[in-house]
Design goal:
Layout lengths: L5 E4 L5 H12 L3 E6 L3 H12 L5 E5 L8 H16 L4 E6 L14 H22 L3 E10 L12 H21 L5 E7 L10 H4 L1 H9 L9 H10 L12 E4 L6
Helix pairs in contact: 1-2, 1-8, 4-5
């Protein structure tokens, strides 16, 4: 059943974001996705979501460029008014990300800055831009990683930034509680997507190694994450706040 709720999913044209958009639509929640450059893929997601009977829109956004967020915020307000007949948003899912390996002792400054801009600066400042148009009683979901809890060679900077966003999530939950805005963090394990060059999906040996280290005996699929994010945008999750929810099948217990 369609609701009057509206969610914004960054990085919604592929992988986890695509699943999130579809799973939100299954809950009757209207959706705005952002995409970086691939409008063709974004349009495919729009068609998928629209077929579920909700309203949907795709907007271009480069989350690595925080100086564009003010203009994006203005465009978002216009789009919400024109497409959805509203001036408010209910849910923000900070999902957009990249996977770059950065060995300890051999991290280039440009790589560090790219990872920092996308995985920490963007959730902080995009949320700050969107908060004035969020309904009280809404929710924010930040996407972290299992790599904030355990380690894997090459992911020191990435995992550390994800740990930072987990702590920031707790601060957000504490300070936004007065507005009844719940803030939680979802931490995926290894998922079969094109993230990080598609290694988990396309490298059979790597896939098997991760599956063998997971009690449930497989790697994750996008819908494993999309379902949890959609649940956190429903009233059934109303008493979950300030939490890190790892969705990894129990990897590296």
């Amino acid at each position: 059943m369609k609701t009057n709720k509206l969610a914004l999913v960054t990085g919604g044209s592929r992988g986890l974001g695509r699943s999130m958009a579809n799973k939100l639509a299954d809950k009757g929640i209207n959706v705005i996705i952002t995409y970086h450059t691939n409008k063709t893929e974004a349009d495919k997601v729009v068609a998928e979501v629209q077929a579920k009977g909700v309203d949907v829109l795709a907007l271009q956004l480069d989350v690595s460029k925080a100086d564009t967020f003010k203009q994006f915020g203005a465009d978002l307000r216009t789009a919400i008014a024109d497409k959805f007949g509203s001036d408010k948003l209910d849910f923000l899912i900070n999902n957009a990300g990249i996977g770059l390996m950065t060995p300890v002792g051999a991290t280039e400054l440009s790589v560090f800055e790219s990872l920092s801009d996308i995985h920490f600066k963007a959730p902080v400042f995009l949320t700050q831009e969107v908060l004035p148009i969020m309904n009280d009683g809404g929710g924010i979901i930040n996407i972290s990683s299992g790599l904030a809890r355990f380690t894997a060679p090459g992911y020191a900077v990435y995992g550390s930034l994800k740990a930072a966003i987990e702590q920031y999530t707790r601060y957000q939950a504490s300070e936004l509680g007065a507005r009844k805005i719940r803030v939680n963090c979802v931490a995926p394990g290894a998922i079969e997507t094109d993230f990080g060059g598609g290694a988990v999906r396309d490298n059979a040996d790597f896939n098997k190694m991760i599956a063998d280290g997971t009690p449930l005996g497989r790697v994750g699929l996008p819908d494993d994450i999309g379902d949890v994010v959609a649940f956190l945008c429903t009233d059934e999750s109303r008493w979950i706040n300030g939490q890190r929810i790892e969705v990894s099948g129990g990897t590296n217990l």
